[in-house]
Structures are given as structure tokens and as C-alpha cells.
Amino acid sequence: MEYRFIHHWQYEPGEEENKILGSAIALSSQARNENFLSEIAAFISEQTGVKYVSIGLLSDDKEHIHTCAFLRDREVLENITYSLKGTPCDDVLTQRFCYFPLNVAQNFPEDKEIHDLQIDSYLGSLLLSEASEPIGLVALMDVKPIENAAFAEHLIMVLSPAIEEELNRLKF
Fold it and tell me: Which CATH number do you get for residue 67?
């Protein structure tokens, strides 16, 4: 897996954030089970305070995402498959990282789910296969601005290799 540097903000984690990042590394190295991605998503939600976390696998045609973990307030929801067209997730595929601090629904009028869930802010990051090809994405969404988005991105980057390994295992 490739390590992607955080370059979107001038950011230095504080003492408490470093403890959380250490816990993320420990979580990443635990033995895997069928709930691993949901556990990762719950950890992200708990540490960032976001309402929704989604970890999804990209379809072979690269036009849909099937969620492997979808949480609201750390509660596991039923997995869904949705079209990328007209969503911020589609932007993640082309830009590798995407952050909308406010009014994300206004920027994506065709995205019914964003409107139905009343999403105001969105942060998403691309996940890669072992061959460094897009395999999926992780998305954080909230009905209010995401607090400390720089830390949220940092946390995702720390957890990405473990998430990518699990998505690769599920895909093949």
C-alpha cells in the first residue's frame, strides 16, 4: 500500500490526538474478523464526532460503491449500493481526497441520499488496491461542519492501509 502524506492543512497533532493515533495503529494490527470494517468505522466516528461513516468497495465498472460498513451515530446500518454519478464520492475518485466543509448538498443537487440524510459536510478519501488502483473509499459525513477536519484526514490516512488490506481480501 502507498502512504499518502497529509498536505491539505498546516497541521500538527496534539498530545491527545497522538494518543488516538496510537490507538488507531493498535486497532489496525488486531486480528481481523467479519466486523473489522465496522469496528474501524465506529472508531473513526467516535474519535471525529461525525454522524455518518461509510467504507465502501468500488464496483468493477467503477460507477458504483457497495458499502462494507455504514454507520450512523456509531450504529451499524444496512449496507447499500449506490451510483457515484453526481455525488461527492465521485469527486474522491478523481481527486483522491475531497473535503466540503459546508453546504455539500447544494453542490450535489442530484445526490438524493445526501439530501435525505441532511448532510452539510463531507470528507472522503480514496482507498487503493495492492496494485495502487482505486478499490474503494472512506467517507465521513455530518449534519454540521466536521470538527477538526485536519485530524480526521490524518486519522483516515493512518487507518487506510488496514482498510485497504481488508477491502482487497473482500474483493478477491
Answer: 3.30.450.40
Task: Give 35-45 pLDDT, tens digit per residue.
Answer: 999 999 999 99
Indicate whether 3 belongs to any domain: no
pLDDT in tens, 113-132: 999 999 999 999 999 999 99
Q: Would you say residue 103 lies in a domain?
A: yes
DSSP labels, 103-160: -HHHH-TT-HHHHHTT--EEEEEEEE-TTS-EEEEEEEEESSPPTTHHHHHHHHHHHH
Q: Which residues, in sequence order, are CB contacts of 110 under 8 Å at separation 6+?
A: 85, 86, 87
